[in-house]
Amino acid sequence: MSKNQISSSEWKFDEQRDINEPLDPQLAIEELRTLVKGDKSLKSRIDDAFMLKFLRARKYNIDKAFKLVQNYYGAKDKSSLFTLNGPSKYKVFLETGTLFMLPNRDHHGREIYVFRIENITPEIRIEDIFKINLMILEVISEDPETQLAGIVVVADFTGFEWLKHYQYLSPYYAKKSAEVVQENFPLRFQGFHFINEPLYLYTVYSIIKPFLKEKLKCRVHFHGNNFNSLHKYLSPSILPKYFKGTLEFEPVTWVRQFLNKEHYFEEMKQYGYNK
């Protein structure tokens, strides 16, 4: 069996072992829930599924998982960037195919998140991109398999034009994104792959690199126009043709499913730190 044919049960077992998941996680869930309830200034979801995704993101270290819960809600309290009103207002933009999830996981069970700058429309600001990114992460973080395996990001800068696209390479938002990845969000970010990246991206990366943990630095890969380099990490069989893959795919179905999550974001509004 090749590495691209690893069965679902195999990668799940490997990931559960990697994050120290016990056979019965209920005790850890109860311990974390007790800590969350003890923060009297915080109104948080406390259901098992919500607790579990924070435990998995911190490999069942209870104290670190609790800190992550606090950071998650703290970020929402400190900045309107983390106020998410749902995806419906971005329907037209989402249908451009700028941001989406691919339908198949990689051989490690990771979901693949794609950004294609050439499809971006000029009325969309970088704040909107940031919020849409967060909403997508919110939705996929509810999936138990994604909690175990994490995600891989593919950012395609084919068609980059300075006057049209420079705002989307803001060092400020790059640093904000790094904070989400490292400190504020219950998800395992397993790889970042950049395609046809402009030279300025290296400048932005050099600015935020000192703030990145060593393990995250090792997960950042610049491929330029070398798709064979990308294929060392992601099989062509799960990539669309514009990544020199063989997958026939349009993100319309995914967009429809994502737009149906409006109720999730309405429910989220009731939680957070007391004003």
Automatic annotation (TrEMBL):
Domain of life according to the entry: Eukaryota
Organism in which the protein naturally occurs: Sipha flava
Top-level taxonomy: Eukaryota, Metazoa, Ecdysozoa, Arthropoda, Hexapoda
SUPFAM superfamilies: CRAL/TRIO domain, CRAL/TRIO N-terminal domain
Family matches, as SMART domains: CRAL_TRIO_N (SM01100), SEC14 (SM00516)
Ranges of residues in domain CRAL-TRIO: 87-251
Pfam family membership, one: CRAL_TRIO
InterPro entries to which the protein is assigned, alphabetical: CRAL-TRIO_dom (IPR001251), CRAL-TRIO_dom_sf (IPR036865), CRAL/TRIO_N_dom (IPR011074), CRAL/TRIO_N_dom_sf (IPR036273)
GO molecular function, one term: phosphatidylinositol bisphosphate binding
Signal peptide start-end: none
Alphabetized Gene3D superfamilies for the sequence: Alpha-tocopherol transfer (1.20.5.1200), CRAL-TRIO lipid binding domain (3.40.525.10), N-terminal domain of phosphatidylinositol transfer protein sec14p (1.10.8.20)
Gene Ontology cellular component annotations, sorted alphabetically: membrane
This protein's name: Clavesin-1
